[in-house]
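C-alpha cells for chain A. Residues wanted.
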C-alpha cells in the first residue's frame, strides 16, 4: 500500500521510495565510517614513516660515533681478558640503559619548552658537533696525525692494566663492564646527540635505533674489536661523524619543526 509522505500533503510515496529514505542515513553513516578509517590509516602510515626515520637516524649516528670510541675499546679489551658473553651483557646493558635515559630526557624537553625551540636547539647541537669533528679531522690532516688507531685505545689499555688480571666470575665481569661503560658514556657526545635527536624526532624510534646500534658496535668489539681498532683510522671515523651530524642539521633545517 502506498505510504503518505508527511512532508508533502496529498502525496503518497511508493514502498521503494520509503525504503530508500530509511536506508539513506545508514549508507551515509557507513560512508563516514569508511572515510574515518581511511584517515586513520593515513595517520598510521605517517606515524610509521616518522618512527622509521628516527630509527635510521639514531642507528647511523651511533655507528659513526661509537666505532673507535672509549666504550668500544672498553668492551674490546675486556673481552680479551674475560668471558665475551659477560662483557657483552654488561656493556650492552649499560649502553641500552643510557640510551633509554637520554631518549627520556629528550621526550621531556618538548613538554618543558616549546617544540620549536627544542627542534632548533637540536639543529644547533648537530651543527656544533659536526663542525667540531670536521675541524678535528682537518687539524689531524694538517699535522699528519690520526692515520692510525685512536689515542683512546692506549688510554683504556692503561686504565685496565690497573685492574686485577685474575679470572673473574660471570656477574663480576658483567658488573665491571657495565660500570666502566656507563661512566665512560655519561656526558659523551653520543649521549648528548641522542637527547637532541629524541627531542626533535620520535623518541621510540630513537631509542630502538640507539639500542640496536650500540648492540651492533658492542658485538663487533667483543668479537674482534682489538684487531679492528688497530686498523681503523681515527681521522676517517671523525670525518664520517662530522659529515653525518651536518647532514642531520641540514635535514632538520629544511624540514622545520612541524
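Reply:
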Amino acid at each position: 500500500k502506498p505510504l503518505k509522505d508527511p512532508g508533502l500533503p496529498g502525496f503518497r510515496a511508493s514502498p521503494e521510495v520509503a525504503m530508500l529514505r530509511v536506508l539513506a542515513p545508514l549508507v551515509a553513516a557507513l560512508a563516514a565510517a569508511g572515510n574515518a578509517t581511511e584517515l586513520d590509516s593515513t595517520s598510521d602510515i605517517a606515524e610509521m614513516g616518522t618512527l622509521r626515520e628516527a630509527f635510521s637516524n639514531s642507528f647511523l649516528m651511533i655507528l659513526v660515533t661509537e666505532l673507535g670510541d672509549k666504550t668500544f675499546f672498553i668492551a674490546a679489551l675486556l673481552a680479551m681478558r674475560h668471558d665475551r658473553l659477560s662483557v657483552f651483557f654488561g656493556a650492552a646493558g649499560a649502553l641500552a640503559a643510557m640510551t633509554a635515559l637520554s631518549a627520556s630526557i629528550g621526550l621531556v624537553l618538548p613538554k618543558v619548552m616549546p617544540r620549536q625551540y627544542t627542534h632548533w636547539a637540536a639543529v644547533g647541537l648537530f651543527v656544533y658537533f659536526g663542525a667540531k669533528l670536521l675541524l678535528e679531522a682537518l687539524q689531524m690532516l694538517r699535522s699528519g696525525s690520526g692515520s692510525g688507531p685512536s689515542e683512546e685505545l692506549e688510554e683504556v689499555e692503561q686504565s685496565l692494566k690497573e685492574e686485577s688480571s685474575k679470572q673473574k666470575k660471570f656477574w663480576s665481569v658483567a658488573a665491571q663492564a657495565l660500570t666502566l661503560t656507563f661512566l665512560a658514556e655519561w656526558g659523551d657526545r653520543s649521549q648528548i646527540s641522542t637527547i637532541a635527536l629524541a627531542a626533535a624526532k620520535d623518541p621510540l624510534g630513537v631509542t630502538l635505533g640507539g639500542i640496536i646500534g650500540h648492540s651492533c658496535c658492542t658485538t663487533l668489539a667483543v668479537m674482534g674489536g682489538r684487531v679492528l681498532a688497530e686498523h681503523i683510522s681515527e681521522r676517517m671515523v671523525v670525518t664520517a661523524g662530522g659529515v653525518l651530524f651536518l647532514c642531520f642539521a641540514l635535514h632538520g633545517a629544511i624540514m622545520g619543526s612541524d
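The CA atoms of residues 90 and 114 lie 37 Å apart. Residues 1-5 have pLDDT under 50 and may be disordered.
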